[in-house]
Write a structure and sequence with these properties.
Layout lengths: L11 E7 L2 E7 L12 E2 L5 E9 L2 H10 L10 H11 L9 E9 L4 E6 L8 E5 L2 E5 L2 H5 L10 H10 L12 E3 L4 E6 L2 E6 L3 H4 L8 H19 L6 E4 L4 H11 L7 E7 L12 H10 L3 E7 L1 H6 L1 H8 L7 H11 L5 E3 L4 H5 L23 H7 L2 H7 L1 H15 L5 H26 L4 E3 L5 H7 L8 E2 L2 E2 L1 H7 L5 H4 L12 H16 L11 H8 L10 H21 L4
Parallel strand pairs: 12-13, 12-15, 13-14, 15-16
Antiparallel strand pairs: 1-2, 3-4, 4-5, 5-6, 6-10, 7-8, 7-9, 10-11, 17-18
Helix pairs in contact: 1-2, 6-17, 6-18, 10-22, 11-16, 15-16, 20-21, 20-22
């Protein structure tokens, strides 16, 4: 099982066995390189932990624990978990500011505890197979155990096809679940108990009478504090710098906290002269790099590299991958020889309404109208009626999203929709970020998702986030004093991908062939004739737009790639 995670922890490994309980760990050394080996136990060996992530405030927590008599054998953040648990039990997680997934074994109480950070930055999966309970940072480690089964979850397939996000802790594998963000799972005396210790609806700060200027100052202070806490590292650290607003803000603030020149990284594809200037990240990233005197590197990839890594990326991400995952995978491959830790602007789009459709009044839509899955009706029409009936996917998804939106009490429709983004879509993005970076032994940190900043921004007035002519209003306001004007006003661009007009038809033909083939792995999910009609714009699909065709084609190609990567039968 630990061998399946060797890419996540290339520096060290360890195992602790206590009767029927076994902990395995693969270490990526970031803090206290000489100490901090895992699994790690307390002084008398009654409490053990295996852990992935960073607790940024561990040095602030340590003195109080020492005053209470706890003795520390290392300078690692890992040991904080053990002693904080001894002092406060599982409630200790409320003290931690960071990104983490850990398992803790209390031998005295015969209690196993799994915990995940508030926003779900670090992944954690589990499953029960007969009388065996398995858990890991990646599903492939669970599947390595003889008791586990590699079987498709048809509800997961339906979730993926209809809204891209897997709901209710579901994965693509039957019997394997994802621990919810902000969740604690306790196993004792054969009984599993799930507790949510933090949720966005409960934590959101209300802002009666707060001005845009006040909000700007608070957000800047919180973001700067988060960046300052997250530059702590005993190994080389840098930032991803695309020249967009979010990564540029993180890089600008990080440059003020590190000693020496900050390392920054950008990427792109060699498109020749086919792209408009505004679509190319390089010149904008260079503006920021020059302004803050960073040690900047831009990596240019060939289009064929993107296609060549699809199967490897799918194996690492463990679900059908979106269009940007191969690009990130290639980027982190090149980053690894330079740094072990990077910070990025992930999360800002979901917090501050950064996507283009927020400028189009989508906040007034119904929950089922996922802006990130705009072709729901077209895709639903392609599904095999038996799959729809078996998974009850349309009604189930509508019920889940309606209930979630209702749980977030806000007078702003936009804020309610942004909550859904943070609850579902963001977790998908974080999973992609974690697994494409950890595939190369690189740790990704996300200052925008410091939970205190998230709590503050959640219910800021919608006008501070999006207006008809501008998004990320409060971020652009605070960025005016930090970044070049061209970067502040630049419209959002997606992660670079090697797509041109010909790609639409190439991907269409490829997807249709995968469904129509006699030995197809994915045909069982679809009505073959309707798929053919869809990709050729016939009958009820005559007016289908090209973007719908391209995005749906990629979804089918990615689904087939997942089946191939894991040898799973439909």
């Amino acid at each position: 099982m630990t061998a399946q995670l060797s890419h996540r922890g290339p520096d060290d490994s360890g195992v602790h066995i206590d009767g029927a309980v076994g902990f395995g760990h693969r270490r990526l050394s970031v803090i206290d390189l000489a100490g901090g080996r895992q699994p790690l136990g307390n002084e008398d060996g009654t409490v053990w932990v295996t852990y992935n992530g960073e607790i940024y405030n561990y040095r602030e927590l340590r003195p109080a624990l020492q005053r209470r008599g706890h003795r520390f054998a290392t300078d690692s953040d890992t040991e904080i978990i053990v002693h904080a648990y001894e002092e406060d039990g599982i409630d200790c997680v409320a003290q931690f500011n960071g990104m983490f997934a850990f398992a803790l074994w209390d031998r005295t109480k015969r209690l196993l505890v799994l915990a995940r950070d508030r926003l779900g930055i670090k992944p954690l999966y589990y499953g029960v197979f007969g009388n065996i309970f398995l858990f890991a940072s990646e599903i492939k480690a669970i599947l390595a155990h003889p008791a586990a089964h590699s079987e498709v979850d048809h509800d997961g397939v339906a979730d993926y096809l209809l809204c891209t996000s897997l709901l209710d802790g579901r994965t693509m594998f039957r019997g394997i679940r994802s621990l919810p963000a902000g969740g604690i799972l306790a196993l004792q005396d054969g009984e599993l108990r799930l507790h949510i210790y933090w949720s966005m609806p409960r934590a959101a700060v209300r802002h009666a009478g707060t001005s845009l200027e006040d909000s700007r100052d608070v957000v800047r202070g919180m973001l700067d504090a988060a960046v300052g806490a997250q530059v702590v590292s005993d190994v080389p650290l840098g930032t991803l710098l695309s020249g967009g607003l979010d990564s540029s803000l993180v890089s600008a603030l990080a440059a003020g906290h590190v000693g020496g020149r900050l390392k920054t990284f950008a990427m792109g594809y060699d498109h020749g002269d086919t792209l408009r200037h505004d679509d190319i990240d390089g010149p904008y990233a260079e503006l920021v790099a020059r302004a803050y005197h960073t040690d900047h590197t831009e990596f240019l990839f060939r289009s064929d590299e993107y296609r060549d890594v699809m199967s490897r990326v799918t194996w690492h991400v463990e679900k059908p991958v979106d269009l940007t995952a191969p690009s990130l995978f290639l980027l982190y491959r090149e980053v690894k020889p330079n740094v072990t830790v990077v910070m990025s602007g992930e999360g800002a789009d979901e917090l501050f309404a950064g996507y283009h459709f927020f400028l189009e009044g989508c906040g007034a839509g119904t929950p089922i109208e996922f802006p990130w899955a705009p072709y729901l009706d077209e895709v639903a029409a392609l599904l095999d009626p038996a799959l729809v009936a078996r998974t009850r996917c349309r009604d189930r998804i509508r019920t889940t999203l309606s209930a979630e939106m209702a749980s977030f009490e806000s007078d702003d429709p936009l804020n309610k929709l942004l909550y859904l983004f943070l609850k579902y879509y963001l977790v998908e993005m974080l999973e992609r970020l974690d697994k494409t970076s950890m595939a190369w032994g690189v740790e990704s940190r996300v200052p925008f998702l410091d939970h205190r900043l998230v709590e503050y921004v959640l219910d800021l007035p919608a006008a501070y986030k999006a207006k008809p002519d501008s998004n990320k209003v409060v971020l652009r306001t605070l960025a005016a004093d930090l970044l070049p004007a061209a970067v502040v006003t630049r419209r959002k661009r997606p992660v670079p991908i090697p797509v041109d007009p010909k790609s639409i038809w190439t991907e269409r033909n490829r997807a249709n062939a995968l469904v129509q083939a006699p030995e197809s792995r994915i045909a069982g999910y679809f009505d073959r004739k309707k798929v053919d009609d869809f990709f050729h714009k016939k009958n009820q699909f005559a007016r289908t737009d090209n973007l719908a065709i391209f995005r749906t084609a990629h979804a089918l190609v990615a689904l087939d790639a997942w089946h191939r990567a894991f040898g799973v039968a439909a």
